Amino acid sequence: xxxxxxxxxxxxxxxxxxxxxxxxxxxxxxxxxxxxxxxxxxxxxxxxxxxxxxxxxxxxxxxxxxxxxxxxxxxxxxxxxxxxxxxxxxxxxxxxxxxxxxxxxxxxxxxxxxxxxxxxxxxxxxxxxxxxxxxxxxxxxxxxxxxxxxxxxxxxxxxxxxxxxxxxxxxxxxxxxxxxxxxxxxxxxxxxxxxxxxxxxxxxxxxxxxxxxxxxxxxxxxxxxxxxxx
Length: 230
Description:
The chain is of the alpha/beta class.
């Protein structure tokens, strides 16, 4: 009899049909994160929206109380005192025309991009580069702001952006497999609360339709929507 592969053994521990409670799902995801690296625990939320319509777009930011477990590199477009403020707050890359040239040259050495309002004329030239990466600064997300110091600290301190994809699904990490189950639950609850409050006016019928949890390399674990919306 052939030996089961590592992936097959993992799959054998998961009931792919059963709807799990969130705490049970977190425990399973952690148990199945057996790679040599610290896997990310990821959530998939299927929403009853069609993001092709402007009144059904779901997008926002949320601060995960237990952090992300990632070292987020922050780039800031600012001049003068605001550039100094960004640097003091811990920004990794700060600049104006010089940073524009670097990004235009193909080097995007940051994960989040923040800009002061007066810099958006400059940053707008980078739409084709930053847009597809989901990093274009946006006032609604707090990434176009005069409070660059606060924005940098928020990005470094566990703030994540969520955005519904074409199929109506939001994918977001809620921490690392090395996190405690309690910390992962706190982050899950924070994300779910933010997405729930961001329900758009055009959403009709059941808003939160399906929820699943997984580690980077692990299988999807279905969660009972009735439990997390109770």
